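Service request form, structural biology core

Requester: graduate student, group of Dr. S.
Request type: structure prediction, single chain
Budget code: on file
Notes: please return the result as structure tokens.

Sequence provided:
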Amino acid sequence: MKHGQPGNRLFVYGTLMSGGQSGGLLRGLRVQPARTRGYLYRMPAGYPALVLADDGPWIQGELVELDTSGRLILLDSFEGVGQGLYSREVIRVAYDGRSANCWAYVMTAKQVRARKAARLKGNNWRRYRWGRT
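Core staff response, request fulfilled:
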């Protein structure tokens, strides 16, 4: 998907969400509920992956306002971008009655198939993983 400039916004949908296993990496930043279309997968190692799909269900997550571009460099390393695990792409999200372009860490359908990931029936990693909304 190609969109306009994402600015300093990042869509998170898994362990980087508030209260998530890795949420501390974004602690103290402005966060609000957001959603995008696609499919959620659980990778064999237990972490989530988002495959974008215009015709997919709404995936629940959070829109984070990043404080510096340096934080993206740190997150790229954390998310394995240089090793080909995730790619950071510009996506469109809906939030608070508006829409915006932002960054997101995603995988392709080919990647999740090759890694034998399980597609989730739901659209909310927090509900799946932690049993809460």
